[in-house]
Structure formats: C-alpha cells, structure tokens
Amino acid sequence: MARTRRVAVAIVAALAAGIAPAALGGAAAVAATPSPTAGETTETGTVVQEGGPLVVPSGEEVVTTRVTVTLPEGASGPVEARLLLPITWDFVNGDTYPLSWDITPSCSVDGGPFRPCPLEDPAGGLNRGPHVATMPVTEAAPTITYDIRIEAGRDARRWKDVTGTLDVGAGGAPDLASGPVGFRFAHNTPSADLRTTVLARDRAGVLWQYEGTGLPDKPLKARERIGGGWNAYTAITGLGERTAAGEGDLVARDKAGVLWFYEGSGNPDAPFKPRVRVGGGWNVYTALTTRGRHLLARDKDGTLWYYRRTPAGSPSVPFQGREEMADGGWNAYSSILGRGLGADVVARDKAGVLWSFTDYHQSNGLKFAARQRVGGGWNTYDRIAVARDLSGSRVADYLGRDKNGYLWLYEGIRRGGNDVPPPSRRQIGHGWGIYDTIL
Predict the structure, then answer these.
(1) 344-368 per-position pLDDT tens digit
(2) Final residue of a domain: which of 132, 158, 186?
(3) Domain containing 303: what range?
(4) Could you tell me the pTM of the whole model?
C-alpha cells in the first residue's frame, strides 16, 4: 500500500530546506539513502464493521451499519471514504438488474447528519465495474466512524450475501485504509404501493379485500370488508395495478347493462371513491377484462373489442371509442383474463387448456399474435384470476379456486414475453367457496 502522509511531510520539509531528494535528481542523488526515522511506517489502517455483515430486509424497514476506521499514525489532512459494491446481476426469468438499482444508501461521518450517498457507476452506465457510494469528506483522525443507512426495495431480496470494500484516503483512494463491508439481504414486507390485493365478492354481495404480503410463505393477509351491495353487478373487473396503498381502478356492470367506474382512492381502508356512471348498453358483452389500464370486452358473436383509457382519465368518460381487436372465435373460451400488470391476455378454452396471447400494434390498431399453449387441466377450477404479484417475483401470479373451495397459487414465470403460470402450484387458502367472484 502507499506510504503514510508523514513521508509526504518529510519530502515537503526537505524541499523547503533546499535539499532535492534523490528521486527528484537533486544534489543528494549521489548520497546514500538514509534509514527511515523512528516512527515512520508504511502500514495502513484498519476497517471494522461492527456486528459483522448487515442484514437488510427488502421493503419498508431502514437499517444502519457502523464501520470504524483506524488510520495510520501521523495521517493528516482531508480524507474521503468510498464504498465499492460489486455489480450483482439477477438472471431470474431472463431479467438483468444491478444491485445498485434497488438499494438507496445514505451516509454519516462521526455522528454527523445523514446525507444521500447513492451508488453510482463510474463507467457512466456501462456497468463494467463496482458501483461506488462516496462518503462526506472529513479531517483525518486516529479513528473515524461511518454510519451507512440502507433502504432496500422489493427486488433486493434476490441477492443473498454481498461483500463490498470501504476504501479510505485522499479522494477515496485506498492509501490509508481498506477493508470489507458485508450485506445480507432478506425477505420483508414490501411497501404498500408494491403489494397487490385480491378482491372477492361473497354470495351476500359483500366485497372483501385481501392484501398481499409480498412474502412467499404467507402471500395473503386476513381479509378486510370493503362494503355491501356488490351483488347488483353481473361483471366486475379491475383496471391497472391494484395495490395495498389504495391504488387501481374498477369497473362494474349492473343487471340493466349500465357500466359504473370506481376510481382508486389512495386510501387502503376505503380503496375506491364513490361510483360514477359511464353509460348503458354494456349487456351486449358476455365478458369484461382488463388490458393494463384499458378494457377488453367480448360480445355475443365472439368478437373482442378494445376500449382505450382517455388521456385525461375522467371518471365519467374513462374510455375512448371501441376498436375491434379480434374478429370472432373468442366464444371458444370460458374465461378471459387480462394480466393487469401489462398487456398480455390469457384465456381458458372449454377443454380446460390455458392459452397466452401477446398483442402488438398494427396500422389498423392493436392485434394479437398467434396464441401459445400454456397447459391443460385448468377446468379443475371454477374460478381463476390473475394477481399483480403475490410472491415477490416481479411477474404476475395466478390463482385458481377449485370446487372444494381451496385456493391455489401459481407463481408466474416469464415465457416468450408473457407472464404465464408454471405447472407447479401450492395451496394458500381454504373456504373460498363462499365467493362467487375473485379478481
């Protein structure tokens, strides 16, 4: 490692006295190199993370680790520390994310105020080396303490153990001290805006909400009552990403064919504002479902129609004029489900086979590519639904309620650009036979 600042001070003093050191080619170059004076050293300091690696729960909790740095004797002047974290890529489902995208550090020196010290890519976004968080500059002292506060998003749970390096010196160079700083990422409940909800209407017309936890071992919280009177509707479908923060809209068609719009309130205890009338005539459709924030409707002839949301998003005029998306053939499906999280659609045919559809834009509007077979056996369920993300996998999950009232979860996977259910499932509830609608 580099010499201490005492060596640098000695050189400066020599120059001030008019003596040119040998390394600079002065008169003293022909003289023998003197022995180091007492107390001079080339050793570096130490870096100690108190308590060892920091456990970082992904989600709402903020945690702090303290690192104590002991500098070499005689170190002086301003020093800076830099935390270097490796580029940890996630290749799950074909996605790639560096760790720095999902953790937010802030830093404090010697008990001072915290300030943001975001991880930055020295390569300008090329991700060719460690990402760096720069600490505030401070004056050299025998010991310096650095507190590093970490808030991790939901995706940080993908990483387990990550070890970085804290370098301390002039401009963050490791000329005074360098040592490891470790982080262990763990599952935790994500913030409300990152957790989905499942809605269920019982046979008395009461609508219930189940908040997702984002945790794989227990994906749903206990139900909460939204309100009664929902048996007035023959079809209910969500629009957009419905979250535990009260986000996400809903449309419902009554028995007279009138469509009503429920705007998300942003209040998790009362997630919808009072309904607003959209218009009549919607009983020409045999199925309603979502395509992101937009609406899909199948008519009695099996044609699928697309209703785009209006740019202004007015509750009384939430949709533009309809567009034909697929001309006929959709009567072959007993269930049509929009993914909600994006643009994909899945449909179950009368033989129980589940199909996936990817849409694309043409000059004459939005169309579907050729369907892809997901798998058979889905007629085991009398209700199926697509959830935004119950398992924390960042892809849409699927629910199936069987005829005995058991609720099954399929943790979604990415295939061919679509989020589709895998062959494996696990039971996450019972007694769901009391509901006639699950979404």
Answers:
(1) 788 999 999 999 888 766 656 667 7
(2) 186
(3) 192-438
(4) 0.67
| Domain total of the chain | 3
Please say whether the beta carbons of 117 and 69 come within 8 A: no
Could you tell me the CA-to-CA distances from 99 to 103, 131, 380 in Å, in that order? Answer: 7, 9, 40
Is the same domain home to 35 and 109?
no
Looking at the fold, whether 160 and 12 belong to one and the same domain comes out as no
Q: How many residues does the chain have?
A: 439
Separation of alpha carbons 329 and 216, rounded Å: 38
User: Domain of 412: which CATH number?
Assistant: 2.120.10
Last residue of a domain, one of 186, 201, 230: 186
Residue 365 CB partners (closer than 8 Å, separation 6+): 306, 323, 324, 325
Give residue-wise pLDDT tens across range 15-74: 334 333 333 333 333 334 333 322 334 578 999 999 999 988 776 678 999 999 999 999
CA distances, 6 to each of 40, 104, 170 (Å):
7, 37, 14
Residue by residue, DSSP assigns 292-317 as TTEEEEEETTS-EEEEPBPTT--SSS
Decide: 158 and 186 in contact? Cβ < 8 Å. no
**Longest alpha-carbon distance in the chain:** 106
